[in-house]
Each structure stands twice: as C-alpha cells, then as structure tokens.
Amino acid sequence: MARPSSDGIRDDDDRLGPGIERAFSARQRHLQGQHFTRADVADLISALCVRTASDRVLDPACGTGAILLRARSRLRWLGAPPANASAQLAGVELDATVADAARENLPASRVRTADFLAPDGKARATAGPFDAIVGNPPYVRQELIRPGHKVALAGALRFRLSRRSDLHVRFWPRAMELLREGGRLGFLTSNTWLDAEYGEPLRHWLGTRYRIVAVIESEVETWFDDARVRTLITIIEKTDPAAAPAARMVRLASRIDQIVGPAITGDDRL
Known about the structure:
33% helix
C-alpha cells in the first residue's frame, strides 16, 4: 500500500511530473506530444494490465514515471516485496531531462534515455519479455513528424503502417514484440485511430492477432486539460482472438477518480 508522507504525497505518487510539466510551454508539449498522466488514470491502466506480484512491467515512453509508480503500487498490493516491485519496472524516455526525473522517482528501477522507436533497436535492449506494457505514447500528429524520421520509422517496423499514422501508432507493434504470450498492453492514446483511415491497418492487425480486452472512453471528463484530442484507454492481451471473448467498448459515466477512489486516497484496493 502506498502510504502518504507528512506532506500528503504518497511514495508512489509522481512528485516531479507537475513541476516538469509547468517548465514546458503548452506549445512545447504539443509539438513533442508530452501530456503527463494523472495518477487515477495510471491506476486504472495498471489494474487491468498488472495481474500478479511477479509481473515485469515496461513503459516505452515513461515520462517522469507516473504510470510506473502506480504499477509499483499495484505490484506491492499484489504481494511483491517493495525492493522486488521496484526492480520489476523498466522505462524508456527520449527526453533526457524527463528521464532524469523518472530515475529520481524510481531509483531502484531501470530507466533508459533512448528512442523506443529507434531503427537500430538499441532502445529495446532492456531484456524482455514483459508481463505488462503500459504507457502514454507521445501525441504527435503525422504532420509534425519530420519526413526523414517518418521514413526511418516506417522502414524499421515489421508491421506495415500508413505513413499518415500519428506517432503513437508506431509504438504498438514494437511494444507487442516485447510482450510475453498471455501478457497485457495498456495504452492511453488519442481516439482517432478507431475511425480514421490511417488506423485501419492497426485495427485489422490488432483484431486478427490479439484479444482486445476493452476500449475505454469517458463520457464525463477529459484526461488531459490541454490535449487537443479526445483520449481513450485500450487494453490488449497477447492471446489468440479466436479463443477469447469479444472486445468490450466501455464508456465511463463517472469520473475515474470516483471509480478508483480508494487507490487515490492511499488504500490501493484495485
């Protein structure tokens, strides 16, 4: 259980993220796709993806470590000793300043400063497979990706994606390569890939290869104050879809902090 300190902040709360976020202008965050994840949203993703005390967890775009911190809390609640829970976490972050903050938040975990999408694959040197992969990939629209970078990314993927795909779409196939059979991936992304033309290859690939456990949207709140798109949580299990139940589209009629309220007050019962 994550216990509050004397200042009311729990040891599994992101102490540094809010300050880092304020240090970037809204324009900088938009251009780089940086939108920091709320603790209650991270709790929901962790609850659906981290299922045993021995799970190894990766965040391929970890920011300051907000989702990994809540995954650590989840592992502790499931019975992992505190030292083990920290050692079971790994993160990759492109921005060196932000990665340093993640290492300060998670001193006993493995956080690399690297590009998870790098064609040479060095950023994926963190040994897999992982039992859970969780994350909030950068919200960068395809128009803002440099042409040369876009070509390099497309050539590095084993899965054919439209060159009009937003940056987050390129995280899915890379992440699934590192997920063990039966493991779960939980991503917080824009909702445009569900109906945009560029999302059709991704929809087909996910639907024919894996079990889509749930697609979650909110009817009552946005999960980022300054994001210019609506967001959703998608939970994927690396399981043959023919042997699994159909996906569930979940529309939340309550705020997430009301659904996972006990976790937010320090009693992690998710």
